[in-house]
Structure formats: structure tokens, C-alpha cells
Amino acid sequence: MHDMVKGSNVSLAALSENIDSVIVSLGWGSPTGEGDADVSVLLLDENGKVRSDADFYFYNNPVAADGSVQLLGKTPTADGNEDRISFDLTAVSPEVDRIVLAASRYEGARFGELDRVRLALADGGGEDLLNFAIDDADSVSAIIFGELYRRAEEWKFRAVGQGYDVGLAGLATDFGVDIDDDAAAEKPLDETEGDDQADPTTAEPATGAALAPAQASDPAPASASASASAGEPQPRETLAAVPSPRQPEDEGQPTKTAARPRTAKKKVTLPQAARKTLAENESWRAARLFPASALKSDRERETRATSVLLSVMAQVPEFGRRLTAAFGAPAGRMETFTEVTLPHGDTPRRPDGVIRVERAGKLWTALVETKTNGSALKDEQVQAYMDIAARRGYEAVITLSNDVALEGSPLVEVKIDKRRKHKVALWHLSWAEVAHQAQLLIRHEGVGNAAHAWLLQELLHYLRHENSGCHGFQNMGPAWVPVRNGIDDETLCQGDPRALEVVESWERLIRQVCLRLGGELGQKVLPVQRTRRGTDPKALRGRLADQLCLDGRLQSELRIEGTPGVLAISADLRTGRLRISIEIPAPEQGYPLSWAKRLVRRLAEAPADLHVETLVEGETTGPRGTLERLRPEPADMLPKEPASQITGFRLSLLKSMGSTRGNAESGFIRSVDDAVNRFYTGVVVHLDGTTSRRAPSKDTATTA
Q1: Which residues make Cβ contacts (< 8 Å) with residue 419, sequence separation at least 6?
Q2: Are 430 and 195 within 8 A, CB to CB?
Q3: Measured between alpha carbons, how far is 203 from 678 in angstroms, rounded to an integer?
Q4: Do the beta carbons of residue 614 and residue 638 sit within 8 Å?
Q5: For a Cys staple, 552 with which of 198, 281, 487, 594, CB 3.0–4.6 Å?
Q6: What span, in angstroms and rounded, lies between the C-alpha atoms of 472 and 372?
Q7: pLDDT band for position 533 (50/70/90)?
């Protein structure tokens, strides 16, 4: 990997031959696990300005209509978060001279509060090409990490590292974006309930992977809006690569008529209520596009699931692009295929599916290997597909199963022949991630038309059907029972590999809980990693496994966007109890008794068995009690010493955890998911600082 320093530049072609598409990652860590930032991209012409406001890509405008830019969202790392951006450099307009890569913090936060602020760039095959660490972020609220620019039809990268003191709005204004500061114009997005509005009879037959309903027209790009204030930018330092602030427009120039971008994050609304059914009674079942009840074997489930998914990907461009952009695929015409036979020595191979994308006369191809239920991916099978892809010049192999990939722990072991000039990337996708992306689109972000929404809803219904085999991670593994027994009888020793297996399964479960809850809320839900920067993920899991052997607990933390604190999850394998809790800070103004009364009023609809503990500075424990006992006497929450300083309150719910390793009614996985759901809907939605009051629906209360 090529290490960059501030001001240096490098030709991408000198680092890789596969640079038609690249993925840029902007990352940072936080000592508290709570720090975060938002990425943005600006396409600039030869004058150093955007051609129009549409050249500004950020959380309210994440995808370019031509597919040249797509913000892929956040991925948790060992010490923080990483935001990835996909670029199809072949689709970038010739009028674009430079692409600026930036990030900004919000609500007065500064980059100096974060660790390991860095940029990485990978080629279309997923191979890391360069790295740029920014060590002097200090007090700035926005940073230009770097820029991609053209020189004689060649793309290069320059490490910039310039800071600004005015955040996202000021940064955008500096490059010619006309920011709208009218907060009153903010409106919630209208969402589509596909069943009531779709008219599949107007469509054309699909090609490629089998699909019964029709192909709807391509969607028009959706515009998103919000509001914020823009100020004059105050650059911390001056580099030749960064233009000076925008000059006032001439009076004779026509004013812009298009809607201006607004930098506050867009709001979402509840889906429209479904119409009353025409069925006579509950025994009548609605006809479904993708029936799952007749499936009898794992092979049938794999075949049906592959065809269903690939069909919808090809017919709903927003959905197909969202799943493949993270794998380096370009934006273009997509076709999908199943049951394809490819030569491989004496025995031809038949991958479950093939995805092919055409852009500017070039083809991007990925082989797909699918598993459902508890079937595991096989090393030799994936290795064969990697070899076939390398020989045929394909770009990727995508594995798809109920398992969740972990950083530093590949699901399959394959050998890469470094003598081959053509490189093939190996990617993994979980069924939980597929359901998550479909839910985000149809419930929160919207798709191009009602037919697309209907198709995605049918896909989501299929994935959640008990017979589809696509339920996501649903088994804690064979080590679960021996580890629980070893903790009960105190025979589990540090270094036992079975404890490490349970820790890895726990991490997979927590990631899936984040996907389910985030998809339901339309908000970011990410695991919190409280580790030192540069910590090896495998070493961290080893320490957690040793800790499990000592105290018998599995613990994790989640950050839900818009909530006042971190959600802590603890599973005590000794007592068989789950504890879900959140710590909320004490108000900055007012009196302690007023705080206590106000909190009790806020929690009027919370469960009576909610535990409330007062956090007192310098003391390990403070007054505590159940909400049922504290409701008539909120003063019992106050410490006996009047001089004691209250720092906050801890709210907790306890629940018996499932004993079996699976996802059945008595299973551990089901109990964790239900506990998180009950705590969020019963407690968190009533607290100050919660941006959404959406409660997960009953049909999605179990792990998807």
C-alpha cells in the first residue's frame, strides 16, 4: 500500500490496472466510542466550482443519477466507524476536473476529539492502493481529506488534509453550492406502501433470472431536503488545490430556480396504513409473487432464493445498485442469471447465479454462491469459483448466506494465485443485510415508482417467511451449550477455543440486531467499539473470550442515531439473565427533584419493572428502584447527601434469556432481539433527544 503525506499526489494507474471504479474510505476512531462525522463529495469544474447544486453529494443526496458517485454508508471498525464512497470513474462527466472528498462534524464537535482520522482508497477488486493519515485535525469541524483529479485523461489522487471551522454548510458554500437556510421549508418524506399502489399489469416481462412480474421503468432520481445555516468558510490553512471562497454573482445573472440543498438530515415518516383487507376471515391468505410454503429441501430453497433476489436486483435499479456498489460494480445496465454452467477442468461448475453490469461497453461480472438455512459455505467450492473467475476475467465472487462476516475472520479460506495478472475480489453478503437494504428503501428512502416498491415488499415478505431459509444469523453454534455448561460448573478455562467461537457468534448476533433495528427505524444503528486505535480484531476477540471465561458475561453497546446515550446489552450466562440499559446525562439546568419528576413523567408509559438508578459523582452506586415504586415518590431517586452531584440516570430492563442456541421461541437469539425491541419501544422512545418515535412493527419483532 502506498502511504501518502499532506500535499503529495500519485497516479492511480501506477498503483493498479483496475481503476475504472474505486472505493474511498474515510475513517476515524473515538476514545469514547461515540464520535462520528459525515462524508461529502463535490464534483468541480476547471474553475474549482460545482456546475450546479446537484454536484454536491452528502447524506441527503447520496447517489448520482449517472452512477458516478454513491455514498455507501457507515461500517463499524475495531475503534470507530468508516464511511465508504463508490466512484465509477468511467461515468464521471468530462466537464468534471476534480472530485473533492470531505467530512464534517456537527453540533459543535471537532475532529480533534477523534483518533486515527484517515483516508484509504481501494481499486475495483477491493485491493487497498493508498492510505493517508491526518494527524493535525485539532479544532476544525470539517476537513478536505483529498481529491481525485484528471491530468491528460489520467486520474490522480492528491492528499490535501485541509481543515475548516464552519462545518458542512460553509464548506459547500466555498465551492459554489447554494445552501438553503430556510428551516421552515423542511417537510417529511412521503413514503410508498407498495401493496396499495402498485399496478404490475402494466409491466414488461423480465429477462435473465426468472421473475413473474413486470419490469417497471427506471426511477427518476429522488431529491432529499433539509435545513441548516451556512456561514462564510474560514480555512485553517491555504493550499493551491483548494479554491478561494466563492465570489458574489453578477447582478445580471439569472437566479437559480432549482431547489437548493439543505444540510440538516432529512426526516422520515411512518408508512401509510394498509387498506382494509377484503378477505372473509383470517384463514384467507393473500396471493404472493414469491411463494415459499411449498419448498421442501435446502437445494430448493437455495435455488428459489437466488432467483428471487437476483430478479428483483435486475428489475429495481435502486436496489441492485445499492447491493453491488459496495463490491466495486459500476452503475449501468444490470442483468442477472441462474443455473449457469462454466468449464472447470474435467467437471463443469454451476454457480448459483451470475450478476453482469454493462457500462460504456465494458462488462463487470460476479459469480454468486448462495446458502440458506444453516448450510455453511464450502472452502473448495468458493475456491473453484475464484479460479474460474480469474481465468475468465470476471471481477468478483459474492457469497450469500445467513452468516455475518466479521472483520479479520473470513467465512471461507481461499488461496489467491499472485502470479495471475487478473485479480478477483471475494465479497460476502448476509440475508439480513439484503432485508435491511430493502426495508430502508421501501419504508424510508423511497424508490422510483409503486411497482418497484411492491416488488421490494414481496421480496421482504419472502425473506421473512419461515420456510424461505433466509432468516439471517440464527444459530450460536455447537460451542454454545458446552460453554454455558462450562460456565455453570466453573470448568471453562481461558484459552478454550470454544469461548472464542461464542464471542464471534455474539458479535454476529449484535451486528444483525443493528441491521434489523436500523432498517425498522430508518436510522443508523451501529455497534460501539471501545478499543485502542490499531487494535487487531482477532486479538480483541481473544481478550473478550478470556473475559467470558472469568465472569460469564457477553457484553456489547449500540449507538442509535438520535438517542441520548448508548444502549448497553449484557447477557449473564451464569444467571441466565439479559440486561438492556441506557445512561442518560443529567440536565444542565434546574434542580435534582425537578429532574427526577420530569424523568418519571417521561416514562409514564414505560414498563413498571424498569430499573432506575441515579448516578452520583464519586460513588459506584446511587439510589435505585423500580419505576413502579418510584412513580408515587420521585424524591426517592435523590441521594441522601444534599451535596452529592448527580451526573445522570441509568435505566435498565431485565429479562430471562433463552437457553437453546437457535432462533426458536426459547432460543437465545430470539430473546436478545426481543429484549432490545422491548427496551427501545418501551423506554428509549420516551426520552429526550430521540429523533424518532417509530416502534418496530409486530411482524418484524424477530430477527430478520
Answers
A1: none
A2: no
A3: 42
A4: yes
A5: 487
A6: 9
A7: low
Consecutive H or E run containing 433: helix 431-440
Q: How many CA atoms, within 13 angstroms, populate the side-chain half-sphere of residue 572?
A: 11
Mean pLDDT within 519-545: 83
Do 654 and 609 touch, CB atoms closer than 8 A? Answer: yes
> Residue 393's pLDDT is what?
92
**Spatial CA neighbour of 663 closest among 654, 652, 675, 671:** 671
C-alpha cell of residue 279 = 378477505
Of residues 360 and 482, more confidently modeled: 482
Rg of the chain in Å (alpha carbons): 26
Tell me, rounded to whole angstroms, the distance of Cα 244 from its chain centroid: 35
The Cα–Cα gap between 528 and 79 comes to: 8
CA-nearest of 134, 28, 20 to 86 is 20
CA distance linking residue 642 with residue 591, whole number of Å = 11
pTM given for the model:
0.74
Cα-Cα-Cα-Cα dihedral sign, residues 624, 625, 630, 631: positive
When comparing pLDDT for 410 and 235, which is higher? 410
Q: Write out the E strands in 33-79.
A: 38-44, 56-57, 69-76
* pLDDT score at 262: 66
Distance of CA 116 to the CA centre of its chain: 20
Query: Can you say how many angstroms the Cα of residue 490 is from the centroid of all Cα atoms in its chain?
Result: 38
What cell does 70 get? Answer: 454513491
What is the signed CA dihedral for 118, 157, 233, 40, rounded to 10 degrees? -70
The answer to whether the Cα torsion of 216, 316, 40, 159 is positive or negative is: negative
Q: Which of 699, 692, 658, 697 minimizes the C-alpha distance to 675?
A: 658
pLDDT: is 61 or 251 the higher one?
61
Give the model's confidence band at 78: pLDDT under 50 very low, under 70 low, under 90 confident, else very high.
Answer: low
Could you tell me which of 401, 399, 324 has the C-alpha nearest to residue 364?
324
pLDDT tens for each residue of 84-105: 999 999 899 999 999 999 999 8
Of how many residues is the chain composed? 704
Provide the CA 480 distance to its chain's centre, in angstroms: 28
Instruction: For residues 525 and 74, give the distance between their C-alpha atoms in angstroms, rounded to a whole number.
Output: 10
pLDDT bin (cut points 50, 70, 90) of residue 257 is very low
> DSSP letter at 442?
I
Grid cell listed for 152: 491528460
* Residue 482 near residue 488, CB atoms below 8 Å: no
Give the three cell numbers for residue 495.
484459552
Q: The C-alpha cell of 246 is what?
A: 466563492
| Contact predicate 582/563, CB 8 Å | yes
CA dihedral sign of residues 49, 52, 55, 60: positive
Quote the cell numbers at residue 526. 451501529
Contact 87, 23 (CB under 8 A): yes
Residue 625: which of 675, 635, 617 has the closest Cα?
Answer: 635
C-alpha cell at 227: 435545513
Tell me the C-alpha distance between 396 and 21, whole Å: 13
Q: Is 224 helix (H, G, I), strand (E, B) or coil?
A: coil
431: left (phi over 0), alpha (psi -120 to 50) or beta: alpha
CA 110 – CA 128 distance, rounded (Å): 28
Question: Going by DSSP bridges, is the β-strand pair 567-572/577-585 parallel, antiparallel, or unpaired?
Answer: antiparallel
DSSP E strands in 382-457: the ranges are 396-401, 425-430
Give me the residues paired with residue 4 across strands.
132
Burial class (CB in 10 A: 0-12, 13-18, 19+), 362: exposed
